[in-house]
Amino acid sequence: MRIVVIGSGTAGSNFALFARKLDRKAEIIVIGKEKTMQYSPCALPFVLSGKIPKLENIIVFPNEFYEKQKIQMMLDTEAKEIDRERKVVITDKGEVPYDKLILATGSKAFVPPIKGVESEGVFTLKTMEDVKKIQAYLEKRKPRKAVVIGAGLIGLEGAVAFRELGLEVLVVELLEHLLPTMLDKDIASIVQSHLEERGIEFKFGVAVSEILGNPVRAVKIGEEEIEADLVLVATGVRANVDLAQKAGLEVNRGIVVDEYLRTSDPDIYAIGDCAEVFDAVTGKRTLSQLGTTAVRMAKVAAENVFGKGVKFRPVFNTAITELFDLEIGTFGITQERASKEGIDVVVGKFKGSTKPEYYPGGKPIIVKLIFRKEDRRVIGAQIVGGERVWGRIMALSFAAQKGATVEDIAYGETAYAPPISPTIDPITVAAEMALRKFK
Amino acid sequence: MRIVVIGSGTAGSNFALFARKLDRKAEIIVIGKEKTMQYSPCALPFVLSGKIPKLENIIVFPNEFYEKQKIQMMLDTEAKEIDRERKVVITDKGEVPYDKLILATGSKAFVPPIKGVESEGVFTLKTMEDVKKIQAYLEKRKPRKAVVIGAGLIGLEGAVAFRELGLEVLVVELLEHLLPTMLDKDIASIVQSHLEERGIEFKFGVAVSEILGNPVRAVKIGEEEIEADLVLVATGVRANVDLAQKAGLEVNRGIVVDEYLRTSDPDIYAIGDCAEVFDAVTGKRTLSQLGTTAVRMAKVAAENVFGKGVKFRPVFNTAITELFDLEIGTFGITQERASKEGIDVVVGKFKGSTKPEYYPGGKPIIVKLIFRKEDRRVIGAQIVGGERVWGRIMALSFAAQKGATVEDIAYGETAYAPPISPTIDPITVAAEMALRKFK
Q1: Which of the residues of A are catalytic?
Q2: CA gap A127, A131 in Å, rounded
Q3: Which tens digits make up the pLDDT trace of A369-390?
Q4: What residues of B are in contact with residue A296 (Cβ under 8 Å)?
Q5: What domains can be seen in chain B, in order of their start residue?
Q6: What residues does the Pyridine nucleotide-disulphide oxidoreductase dimerisation domain cover (chains A, B) (predicted)?
Q7: Are B353 and B364 in contact (CB under 8 A)?
Q8: pLDDT value, residue A439
Q9: pLDDT tens-digit readout, A408-429
């Protein structure tokens, strides 16, 4: 069998490795635009801040590693077209026939059509190339004032990196609060205060209408001109669907796949940022676009190419980040989004400490849990705190993935030791708060 | 209603507080031998090491707090007998009538009948009084060499505390490895190496036959005399069941209760260390004797006293500790125990890092997962590592509590961010290892 993968990012590279594990003989060919196989795009802000010393570090494996696994790489190569009838991929370096084709074309940074967005000093933060450009600019121009457009995950991680490098930072967000798809306003405002205390400023509900100067010297918001000698555009990503669309595959915001990750052509699969998955809460198709989702889709698609018939499970989009010394963890639906979707919810919220009161060094932690009224299941969580947020979001997410109800959390067993966590965990109390409202 | 609680420890005190939350008017009377309400016995080793600055800190609430909640306290009082016919508790300070009685009599340190065990310098580590005595002895005698009998949780936490205070420490364990009920030998040996590197010595498969000197100057193991000027006896605890037994209640190793935590007398409940619960893996009655279990039993018993009919769920004994800079988390059954119980298991084990390779500061972590062959469910986990063990054991335990299978873990969503965790989590890989053996 000849398996061709278009895309050498997280999804494509992991697919190739999983497929090789499952079959030693299959021909596996990866066509990639970049010169290397996968690197970790989530790591880019941490390269920028200097926490990861070298950009090259984030390349997960060197090309030789894939060669040893007998994965053929056609790097620096662009797939131009898919001829589904002849089962060939047409690239700028010739035709590549396939038995099974995997689309792992990823996503690209979305850049809104703001006047001046092409000027020197305006960047996105999606690829290694982006980081190289920013680093060269930092070196050359020594900017002092950064404006970040967009208060999503990448925007905030970028803002923190710039702040850690000593720049003044203003974040501008069109919506009403930061991390608008991950957090509700009450929780977002806690994160906001934390970032403001460390010198990051915010403007919400407004848009940058123009970027002035080349190199950039200011941004325009309404009538106001705000000084800026570096602009980061972090207004989300768009799935790369052109190739799929041209090939006549069913495409929505992402490439449409069934639960086995097959596109409308049974010999073509789509995985990673370019493909839609099912949302575990709403049941609707959605773009997950998390690294973990890409890897998990790669695994399932590899199994299905070899006929295992594994269903890709709907996603909760469990996510975590660290901004300065605050951990932020979420999964599932926010209260705001639930209201838009017409889902009745019961919420439990509790502010506690990460350690027992008597143990020195405990840090504040806020837990917000969202339960569906109809079936009492936990369908969302937002946790913000100074430590051990990750463990709590992991626990709640695993519980949610198994359909846990408010009772399951409120009466659930937690692990306690004085240096680590309180006897009655904040997640337990938050669930108890919700449970009382159910009764 | 007049509710009488015997025992002012974790279970008794929490019961009183939960009961008060449920009913503002009920008479709630706590009879306790000690002079305070609950303190945290798990915190005692950390008081000893000095990590918790003052012994008094570990008293969870002052007596005034309970007074404000209108909880009547008969402290410094011993319950002598229960007259079930007249529904009265007979104490050394008079009779106390009850409508519902809660036995929260706790457990006591088990001291094996070793010759010399009564000598000066030989201690247990179960109560605040124990810590006071040890601290006075440390002050007065300035011991240099401690022998700890028993390599369970308290033994090891005590050993670490003594080591941190600068003593030489030898731990003697009758069984073949440390934490014998929580870990298998392969995982225990990792913990052992960690402790040995920090100067704690071990002897396994041997017993102390005699304690020599008064004050103690040595212990005898076989023919060998080993110098020791402090001995900690940490050979487990025994449920306090005398009162229940005298009252004619059904008693096994602990007081027998049904799933509503009622004893064989429907007006008497038993909670905490003195009562047996159901083991989630074997289905058998067991003594859990964890602080978290005590609190959870207290909550359920309080609800049931007021007729809510809540079942206490079988326990996985999810537990965590920190020994120097190693976190150790477990739940469920070990492979060794499963073999004794005749349960066929499939094991997945993986050694990885707590962070992605490219991110500085990752620490080794070892995950061992135990699945039941019959239904593919996760029934045990042992994790040892330099950080973020707690989160993984919490996640796996919550999954296990919802009946998660090997597929649920292997295909489960985890939360990833470069400074926090790898894209493919060690628990995912461990589950994949097991899954391959299933197939």
Answers
A1: 42
A2: 7
A3: 999 999 999 999 999 999 999 9
A4: 411, 413
A5: 2-42+55-108+238-305 (3.50.50.60), 122-233 (3.50.50.60), 319-438 (3.50.50.60)
A6: 323-423
A7: yes
A8: 74
A9: 999 999 999 999 999 999 999 9
